[in-house]
Amino acid sequence: MKLSFALAAVAACYAGVAFAEDVAPADVQYTDEGAIAASLSGAAGDAANGKKVMSTKSKGNCVACHAISAMADVPFHGEVGPTLDGVATRWDEAHLRGIVANAKKTYEGTIMPAFYKNDGYIRPGDAYTGKAPTEALTPLLTAQEVEDVVAYLMTLKD
Amino acid sequence: MTKQVTSKVLIALGFAASTLAIATSAHATDPTEPLVVNGEIEIVTHTAAPAHLEGLKTIQSGWEFRTPETQDLQRDDFDNPGMIGVDNAREAWNTVEGTAEKSCASCHEAPESLAGVRAVYPKWNDKAEEVRTLEMQINGCRTENMGAEALDYTDNKMTEMVALLSAVSRGMPVNVAIDGPAQAMWEKGKEMYYTRTGQLELSCANCHEDNYDNLIRADHLSQGMINGFPAYRLGDAKLIAVHTRFKGCVRDTRAETYKPGSPEFVALELYVASRGNGLSVEGPSVRN
To answer: Which residues bind heme c 2 (chain B) (predicted)?
Structure first.
């Protein structure tokens, strides 16, 4: 109990300086199988925030495509992707990180968007405005948000 | 009737669709009755895909993916809110506008004299040497024959006029030409359809060919056909032009969209229309 409290405090400190520690999207090292070994932010993930990111339309919006029984309180789960129930039994943390950051490294040509990438697009827009971007693109999720999502996914065990 | 929407998988598995349909379909819309408008206009809402379309065996109107309640609104013109726009356009049809002091009726008599036109648009125009959508042709008549001003591409009056021309063609098979002088535009539209755009890197085909009949959040994905356009969208409470729908779908991939009436969207419309060759003209349809 004391230990995890201390860890959370450390994580919170890290979050404050997260930008300096983030691995830039272009520098992310994927294994041949599409996994990423270490945290993208250098900090641990917060599963509760991960759940929020996954169910928020303007963030991960993962439920648009995936059904998740543990998120029954969130309305309208899609079925374009497989259910994420038990996903942490199928994949380890490094591989889940890789799938969230860029699923195309695991599943060639998949419809699942890459959430930690910021270039190589055709006609990208400024978020959902339909207009051309006026600034450099940022990834769909921050490094810490990816870690938070991975932390939540790790709770989905059979 | 067998569920066409589930049969794509079942056919691939070699089963008769009817035996497994109940077990496999969570929500596939199963119209209790085929669509017959006003008890007389029979609408083909699914049929064999045209030869050029390799990705689909059966093509289906968006009508088949809507709820029974929404479907029923199209069975009778008194229930179809899109018909109000058609009535407005009938009035506009007879209204003199422009320096030539002509109305549409001066050259074309009743709108019914143009039955069949909707079914073959977008279409190559020899004189203008371009592929024209119905909107472009309507503006062509306004500026070239009536001396009237062009309407904005998605102006309500424009969409209503397209709805009138669709209404008088209802039940006729979509039959857009894809060869000859229109072929280059068609190829361009096809390339657009399969190009993954925006920060979500999604193509039209990702949603409407690979995932139709799946739910994406609360939306039941259709094949993205345009035989039902203009569509009266209950959510917007108005008639929606084809290019307005395209714009919305492109925007939803977090991409920079094209403008309604742009050569890109004209090419895309020609291609998407041709994917529906064989379905009936159905506009104005009702969608949620």
So the answer is: 204, 207-208, 249
